[in-house]
Structures are given as structure tokens and as C-alpha cells.
Design goal:
- The chain starts with a helix and ends with a helix.
- The protein is built from 4 helices and 12 strands.
- The chain has helices at 5-21, 60-67, 75-78, 185-211, and strands at 27-31, 36-41, 48-56, 84-90, 95-102, 113-123, 129-135, 148-149, 151-152, 155-162, 165-175, 177-178.
- A hairpin with a 4-residue loop joins strand 1 and strand 2.
- By secondary structure, it is α+β, with helices and mostly antiparallel strands.
- The chain has a single domain (5-211), classed as START domain (Alpha-D-Glucose-1,6-Bisphosphate, Chain A, domain 4, 2-Layer Sandwich), CATH 3.30.530.20.
- It holds the Pfam family START.
- GO terms for molecular function: cholesterol binding; cholesterol transfer activity.
- May be involved in the intracellular transport of sterols or other lipids. May bind cholesterol or other sterols.
- This is STAR5 protein.
């Protein structure tokens, strides 16, 4: 039976909106000049959902240009956790099924992973842009032999304009990923805060380079 990709994508976007409006229960775990990272137990799977929040020194359009989930986008260049990104099927103007592969990480303790997600892009009336995703299966994307298949539970990024500050953008992101395989929980729990901190730091460099 065909998966309802649009329905799954819209449900992931709704979850992101709920997370954004729900400030309760988050516990801070890492703080840098670029981002504060917090977490709480996920309601979707046996792991945690992580929340990253930071202000980037660029317009929402420039930030979006760096993070938008499109074929040939810049993310594979600046995001050290994204090795390859391909669109498997464009379902509509705003919804696509994508495959992302990640390099080995954490001193090679974490081997390369692949993720197949349906991704939705949405713009709100106030200019906020959202990219939301969740794991799906797709007939053109069977598991590949050299990768461990991981699963993104509903996750996403909001690019939020700051009133009166056209060259600054609030980026609010939610990650909840089951890396799959047999990783010690301690590795998983240290990997995500470090990974999110790196994401914001590399993104800040990417938006500065875009403006240069």
C-alpha cells in the first residue's frame, strides 16, 4: 500500500508547532555563544527529543538558503553530519521524500548512517519558515549494505524573523533520531548535544560566508 507522504509530512509539521508552543519539561544540557541545547524524553520512541535555539547573524532568507532540504543545496558542504542528500520523489511543491547519508562520527564509534524521510517546507504569514521531516519507507530506497538505517522521528527547524532586526534570525530546531544499530546509550547521549552545537556553529560560518 502507498504511504500517505503528505499526511505524514503534515503531521510532522503539526508536531513541530506543538513543540514550539510547549516550553515545559526541557532540561538544558549544553550552552555555547551560538546555541542553547536542551532535551526531554521523546513521546515517539525510547530516546530523547533535543531542542536547539540560537540567533544567527543573517536574514531569515540567508539562513533558509543554507538549511533548506533541496537537491544540490548547500547543506552537504557546510553540515559535517550530512555526507549526501538526494530527493527520491517530489510528492508536491512543498513535500518530498529524501535520502540523507551521514559519515562515520564520534571517532568512528558511530558508523555511516542513512535516513529516508518525508520532508515538508512551509512558510507562515509572519515570515517564519519551517522544514519538518519524519521517517518513511520508499520503494526506490531499500536499505543499502554499507549503511545502518536510522530513523528520524518528527523533527524540524524554524527560521524565525526577529522584529526590527532584518539581519538576525532565530533558529529553533528539534531533533529526535534513532540512530539504529547497537550503540551504547552513553554514546548516543553525548553525540546529540555535541552534534547540535556543531550544527549551529557550522551554520553560523556558512551564513557569514554567504554574505561575504
Amino acid at each position: 500500500p502507498d504511504m500517505d507522504y503528505v499526511g505524514l509530512a503534515e503531521a510532522a509539521a503539526e508536531k513541530m508547532e506543538l513543540y514550539r508552543r510547549d516550553p515545559g519539561g526541557w532540561r538544558g544540557c549544553r550552552h555555547t555563544s551560538e546555541v542553547s541545547v536542551s532535551w526531554r524524553p521523546s513521546a515517539e520512541f525510547a530516546g530523547n527529543v533535543y531542542r536547539g535555539e540560537g540567533i544567527l547573524p543573517a536574514s531569515p532568507q540567508d539562513v533558509w538558503e543554507c538549511i533548506k532540504p533541496v537537491a544540490g543545496g548547500s547543506r552537504t558542504k557546510w553540515d559535517q553530519n550530512v555526507k549526501d542528500f538526494e530527493v527520491i520523489e517530489a510528492v508536491s511543491d512543498t513535500v518530498s521524500v529524501c535520502r540523507t547519508t551521514t559519515p562515520s562520527a564520534f571517532m568512528r564509534i558511530i558508523s555511516p548512517r542513512e535516513f529516508v524521510d518525508v520532508v515538508l517546507m512551509k512558510q507562515y504569514e509572519d515570515g517564519t519558515m519551517l522544514s519538518a521531516a519524519t521517517n518513511v519507507e520508499h520503494p526506490l530506497c531499500p536499505p543499502q549494505p554499507n549503511f545502518v538505517r536510522g530513523f528520524n522521528h518528527p523533527c524540524g527547524c524554524f527560521c524565525i524573523p526577529l522584529s526590527g532586526e532584518p539581519d538576525r534570525t532565530q533558529l529553533l530546531s528539534f531533533f529526535q533520531t534513532d540512530l539504529g544499530g547497537y550503540l551504547p546509550q552513553t554514546v548516543v547521549d553525548s553525540f546529540f548535544p555535541a552534534s547540535i552545537t556543531g550544527f549551529y556553529s557550522n551554520l553560523a560560518k556558512a551564513v557569514k560566508a554567504l554574505k561575504a
